[in-house]
Amino acid sequence: MFEKFTRSARDVVKGAISHSGRAGATAVTEEHLLLSLLDAEGTTASSALASLGVDRRREALEGALREARQRGGISRADAEALAGFGIDVDEVVARVEATHGSGALAADRTTKRWRPAGHRPFTPEAKAVLERSLRAALARGDRHIGDEHILLALAAHPGVVADVLTEYGADQAEVERALRDGGPGRARAS
C-alpha cells in the first residue's frame, strides 16, 4: 500500500514518526499523524486546513489534544456528555492522578517489546487511519494516496483526533468541502 502514497503522504508518515520520537512515545499515534499534517506546507491537506483556519489555531489544537490525552483519550464533547450523567471527568482524572501520579491516564499503553533501534511501531488506530486513507482515495476515484486522504481518514473516524478537528471547525463534511472548493483536491502522484 505504501507504494501508492504520494511524496507528500510519505512525508506525513515520516513526520508522524518524528513527532512520536520527539514526544518520547513508544508508538506513532493518530495525533502524530495530525501534527505532521499541520507541519506540511504547500500540500493539498495543508491548503484545506488553512482554508478552515485550523493552521492558525495550532497551539490551541495541541492543547486540546494534550487535555484529551491527560483525560485518557476522552474528548471535551465526551466529558460534557458524561457531565450530563453527573460524572465529572476532571474530578475522576484528579483522583486517579492523586493515586497514581500526574499523567497516569496519559501513559503510553503500548507493550514494551524489544524493537530494533530506531523502529517506532504504529498504534492499531494509526494503522487504521492509513488503511482508511486508501478507502478515501478509492471513494474519490484516485489511484494514489495523498496527504488529503490521510486528513479525510482522520476526520472521518470517531475518536479524539476527529473530535478535536470538529471542535476547531474541521469535521469530515468541512474537510471534504475545503478539499473540493480549494481546487481539484487531488494531489499529484510523485
Automatic annotation (TrEMBL):
Entry-linked Pfam families: Clp_N (PF02861)
Source species: Streptomyces sirii
SUPFAM superfamilies reported in the protein's UniProt record: Double Clp-N motif
Keyword Protease: yes
Keywords from the named record: Hydrolase, Protease, Repeat
Gene Ontology BP annotations: proteolysis
Domain Clp R: 2-190
PROSITE patterns: CLP_R
InterPro entries xrefs: Clp_N_dom_sf, Clp_R_N
Taxonomic path: Bacteria, Bacillati, Actinomycetota, Actinomycetes, Kitasatosporales
A GO molecular function held by the record: peptidase activity
Name the record gives this protein: Clp protease N-terminal domain-containing protein
Source organism, top-level taxon: Bacteria
